[in-house]
Amino acid sequence: MAAEGDLPADLLTEEVKHSSGDFVPPDGLCWVSVLSCLLLACSYVGSLYVWRSDLPRDHPAVIKRRFTSVLIVSGLSPLFVWTWRQLTGVRTGPALLSLMGIRFEGLIPAILLPLMLTMVLFLGPLMQLAMDCPWSFMDGFRVAIDPWFWSLCFSDMRWLRNQVVAPLTEELVFRACMLPMLVPCAGPLAAIFTCPLFFGVAHFHHVIELLRFRQGTLSGIFLSAVFQFSYTAVFGAYTAFIFIRTGHLIGPVLCHSFCNYMGFPAISTAMEHPHRLTVLSSYLMGVLLFFLFLFPFTDPAYYGLPTPVCTLTSSPSSLCLS
């Protein structure tokens, strides 16, 4: 390991600044950050509509075309962060990919702990699913390790979209790229609640689909859009919290995929379940355990202190501390 005297003076100064929390945001940073995030969100959503088609969004041909455009935008999204850095003059200690949560330090905890935390939150729905499933545990295990099962999954365009492409691209764009641009401007806590607004508004494009194909009444479509915005905003705040605390992209991606698989908890069904008391107790227990484990499971000490995105804050934040 090199001694401090072997480091170039400018790098040593920068390292000391970041470690001491003396980062000073340049003038006009917030405007550039918000506009960059808005442009990135519009590019992501706009890429879904570059293909003219009269087919619904779940048609395999539409899904394949959208895969192409959204993967291109997502692949180019790091350029937005690089350009933002050049325009603002923000000096970042960690490399660009590290800021975006693509790194090896703390990778194993980042794969396991956030996903376990999310499964704890879904304890009620998981209990309900297990009680209603006609399969035994061993039957489910045999299916899970069957290559034929996974080949069927990966050949299903809707499954591939919901479990792989959407979680990966949305977390890359709306968390890994936007949070490094928002944290220097707003700080970690405000960024957690600002970033999901772009994510929630981006999901309003589903209203276009519903209106085009007249899938419901106007009031029903509006209420559905409001609910989806609220749900995606809350979920986006949760994955933004995980990203800032862990400094990894993989955790939010896996949690996103899991939540897409589970869907919104069917509370009304739980109220009518034959074993209602057991199921509802599981719902309550899951929520209580989730809040109990929220900070311990995302302790930055497991993932390498400080997490890269936390080096961009102008003042120390409790979210970045162990």
From TrEMBL:
It catalyses: Hydrolyzes the peptide bond -P2-(S-farnesyl or geranylgeranyl)C-P1'-P2'-P3'-COOH where P1' and P2' are amino acids with aliphatic sidechains and P3' is any C-terminal residue. GO terms for biological process: CAAX-box protein processing. The chain crosses the membrane at residues 31-51, 67-87, 107-131, 172-199, 220-243, 279-298. Keywords: Endoplasmic reticulum, Hydrolase, Membrane, Protease, Transmembrane, Transmembrane helix. One of its GO terms (molecular function) is metalloendopeptidase activity. The keyword Transmembrane applies. One of its GO terms (cellular component) is endoplasmic reticulum membrane. Its EC number is 3.4.26.1. Residues 159-262 form the CAAX prenyl protease 2/Lysostaphin resistance protein A-like domain. It comes from the Eukaryota. InterPro entries: Rce1, Rce1/LyrA-like_dom. It is found in: Endoplasmic reticulum membrane. It is a multi-pass membrane protein. Belongs to the peptidase U48 family. This is CAAX prenyl protease 2.
